[in-house]
């Protein structure tokens, strides 16, 4: 790969021919027809002017495909990111107001800059701080909140307050919502590749206009501005407001890129390539910047649209280029067609893909695998729901709990006494009820690095053995699981050697890795000594045991 190809990933695309362009145009048309009504629906979820949902599917999608390492992903507005925008801005402004739009644009710009910087300095690994159970729990809690936010429109009410008072119910709105949801489910099961979203939108618009739905009090999309988006520069919000946007910015950056990761890993694995997460960070960040400068909200990769893109046969980024052309033509020519679409239909468009995120069985499977992680996931789910609209507390709590559990495990490494299993391997002596390898011999294995987190545990294990069995004359340390050692670990090893020497106990090291051996040698802890023995393999150590080299007490010093 040349330097220019690294800087501009689109230079790696294959040279198009007629067959390729025909195939990519079909895939792009399919995704483009889906993203238009979906973008409008997601803009409503974010509390933004509805047209901004289409703006977010235009220039951001083009920038992302040009500069990302995963060109077959569909970038634009997504339900989860739009929910985060809405939840983050609820305490700061009124939905749909000019101030709300300004703050949403700032969220797009700040998260975009952050992602670009993380990608440039190759810090994509930081996103691995959120483990799978925490992300699963947060996603499912967010899905519950998204569905709850769409229920009033789906059932013909203006708001949850209207539902509570049983006021303002509109029966035709309920009919549009439920029939649209049923049609989308049915078509997706029968013909997954069919542009069912666009078909339902156009059909509902025709029926709505024919029956006078808007005149009868029904809520519709209304008039959308026609034409391409103009450059948008937000006003300065002030340092206090900017500070209030920092946590939401971190949350949107984290969650939106994890959305990208879920699609990118699958796509790159299918192509047999290594996922370049740093380049995708840059591409996704530039897309967010483009969205903000278009007056829209933060974008992300849509799993459902990316899956549809692959299902439709997309092989390169040219499919997204055609998709962008479809969106641009729609902005120039087709906006009047959306005027009469009921908001209940938009609610159905949001609910259907989000419903698939609800998987209670995931918690059951996780409980069977790890009860601690299941508790962390359940707590994350509960806090996310209870803290709404401040959803970031759920992820923060989950990350803190997961890291605490990780640190606990690191500080309490698995240290076992080994015995010879009938199959010839060395295994946990107490678990398998095996006899000691030899009299007055303590054979142990630590399944961890020897560093500041584990050094005390190793010293404590040996000290407790010597205290409980003072006649111990040989300590055999299976060292091959120790693949890393730091200065603290080296100091602890030195103290261990001194302690054993004082008691005239032999130390036998088996299978020490070269980096560990070099550091201990540099620290002067592997100096030749009659009570220090090194073995390259377990077989050598077992042979020494059989020959009696590790058996027999050493005479105690005279007093």
From TrEMBL:
GO cellular component, one term: membrane
Biological process according to GO: transmembrane transport
PROSITE patterns noted in UniProt: STAS
Membrane topology: Multi-pass membrane protein
Record key words, sorted: Membrane, Transmembrane, Transmembrane helix
Pfam family, any one: STAS
Tagged with keyword Membrane: yes
STAS domain segment(s): 444-545
Compartments reported by the entry: Membrane
Record-annotated membrane-spanning stretches: 25-44, 50-68, 75-94, 100-121, 133-155, 167-185, 197-221, 241-261, 316-335, 341-358, 393-411
Tree of life domain: Bacteria
Main location: membrane
Signal peptide: none
Name of the protein in question: Sulfate transporter
Species of the source: Hydrogenophaga intermedia
């Amino acid at each position: 790969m040349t330097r220019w190809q690294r800087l501009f990933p689109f230079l790696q695309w294959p040279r198009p021919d007629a067959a390729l362009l025909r195939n990519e145009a079909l895939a792009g048309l399919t995704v483009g027809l889906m993203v238009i009504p979906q973008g409008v629906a997601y803009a409503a979820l974010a509390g933004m002017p509805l047209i901004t949902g289409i703006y977010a599917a235009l220039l951001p999608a083009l920038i992302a495909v040009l500069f990302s390492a995963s060109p077959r992903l569909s970038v634009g507005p997504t339900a989860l990111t739009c929910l985060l925008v809405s939840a983050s801005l609820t305490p700061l402004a009124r939905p749909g107001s000019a101030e709300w739009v300004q703050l949403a644009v700032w969220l797009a710009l700040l998260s975009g800059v952050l992602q670009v910087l993380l990608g440039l300095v190759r810090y994509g690994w930081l996103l691995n701080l959120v483990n799978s159970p925490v992300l699963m729990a947060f996603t499912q809690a967010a899905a519950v909140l998204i569905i709850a936010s769409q229920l009033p429109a789906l059932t013909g009410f203006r708001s949850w307050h209207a539902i509570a008072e049983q006021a303002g119910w509109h029966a035709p709105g309920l009919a549009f919502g439920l029939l649209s949801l049923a049609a989308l489910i049915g078509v997706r099961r029968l013909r997954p590749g069919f542009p069912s979203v666009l078909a339902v939108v156009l059909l509902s618009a025709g029926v709505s206009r024919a029956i006078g739905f808007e005149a009868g009090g029904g809520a519709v999309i209304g008039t959308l501005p026609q034409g391409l988006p103009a450059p948008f520069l937000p006003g300065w919000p002030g340092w206090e407001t900017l500070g209030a946007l920092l946590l939401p910015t971190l949350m949107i950056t984290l969650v939106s890129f994890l959305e990208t990761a879920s699609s990118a890993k699958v796509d790159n694995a299918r192509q047999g390539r290594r996922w370049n997460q740093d380049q995708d960070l840059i591409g996704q960040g530039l897309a967010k910047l483009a969205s903000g400068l278009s007056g829209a909200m933060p974008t992300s990769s849509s799993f459902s649209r990316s899956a549809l893109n692959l299902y439709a046969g997309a092989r390169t980024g040219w499919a997204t280029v055609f998709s962008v052309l479809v969106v641009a033509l729609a902005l120039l020519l087709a906006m009047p067609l959306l005027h009469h679409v009921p908001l209940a239909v938009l609610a159905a468009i949001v609910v259907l893909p989000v419903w698939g995120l609800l998987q209670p069985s995931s918690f059951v499977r996780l409980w069977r695998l790890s009860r601690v992680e299941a508790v962390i996931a359940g707590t994350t789910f509960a806090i996310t729901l209870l803290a709404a609209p401040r959803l970031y507390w759920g992820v923060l709590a989950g990350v803190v709990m997961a890291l605490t559990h990780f640190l606990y495990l690191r500080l309490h490494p698995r240290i076992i006494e080994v015995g010879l299993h009938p199959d010839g391997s060395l295994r946990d002596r107490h678990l398998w009820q095996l006899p000691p390898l030899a009299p007055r011999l303590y054979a142990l294995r630590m399944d961890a690095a020897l560093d500041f987190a584990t050094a005390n545990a190793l010293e404590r294990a040996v000290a407790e053995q010597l205290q409980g069995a003072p006649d111990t004359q040989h300590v055999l340390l299976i060292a091959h699981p120790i693949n890393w050692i730091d200065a603290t670990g080296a100091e602890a090893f030195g103290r261990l050697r001194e302690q054993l020497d004082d008691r005239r106990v032999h130390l036998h090291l088996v299978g020490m890795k070269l980096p560990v051996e070099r550091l201990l040698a540099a620290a002067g802890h592997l100096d030749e000594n009659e009570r220090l023995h090194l073995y390259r393999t377990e077989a050598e150590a077992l042979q020494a045991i059989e020959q009696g080299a590790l058996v027999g007490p050493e005479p105690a010093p005279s007093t």
